[in-house]
Amino acid sequence: MTAIVSVFVASPDGGRGLARDMAVRWALREAGVAHDVRPLAFADLKMPAHRARQPFGQIPTLDSDGLTLFESGAIVLHIAERHGLLPADAAGRAQAISWMFAAVATLEPVIVEREVALLLEGDQPWTPARLPLIEARLRQRLDDLATALAGRDWLAGGFSGADIMMVSALRRPAAQRLLGDWPTLAAYVARGEARQAFVAAFADQHARWQAARG
Ligand code: GTB
Known about the structure:
Strand order of the largest sheet: 2-1-3-4
Oligomer: single chain
CATH topology of the largest domain: Glutathione S-transferase Yfyf (Class Pi), Chain A, domain 2
Number of strands: 4
Shape: globular
Distance between the termini: 30 Å
Number of helices: 9
Order of helices and strands: EHEHHEEHHHHHH
Structural class: alpha+beta
Radius of gyration: 17 Å
Number of domains: 2
Bound molecules: S-(P-nitrobenzyl)glutathione
CATH class of the largest domain: Mainly Alpha
Helix content: 55-70%
């Protein structure tokens, strides 16, 4: 049966592939797994039918292998485990999974915290004092990641699911031109985005966004 990814019917990212379905689409393309999408409007996300797939009423989800999965990191790990997107040796595999968790639990929260402070709390009286603290935390994370990546192309040996998750997290600050001080990270994102599977996945989501625009 064809795998199905739940996606926004019209992503608010303006077709830039910045929503979290992009990592899932990319992993499926890397894996060569045929898939289709379930386009959902914002109102559909909070309906019982979708909450049965995703308890928090969000995208993405994946229906595949008789399972319905949620959380982009868990979905990419599932695909990676079944389709050779993790190192073959146990130690390398464990290392790659550590990096997948680092992407969603260590890098992404500081990236999202900054976006929330600017977009949702920009007019709050505490934001001018809080923003520099958030930005300092983000800079520290980017410094540390750049140090860890120095001299290598990918996080865990060859390209893996870890890179799908980490490049996906970094694409949001990259889109806001925040990686200028970290050429190692900018080059890493560019390497990920140059992959044929990324290009195909990006085109898939962009075509959907354009079709929804009419
Ligand atoms: N931890 C979950 C996962 O990784 O799967 C988080 C999922 C999540 O945040 N989903 C968002 C969602 O469904 C879409 S991706 N939001 C609707 C809701 O919560 O009601 C986040 C996102 C949205 C928009 C942009 N953008 O416009 O650039 C970027 C990222």
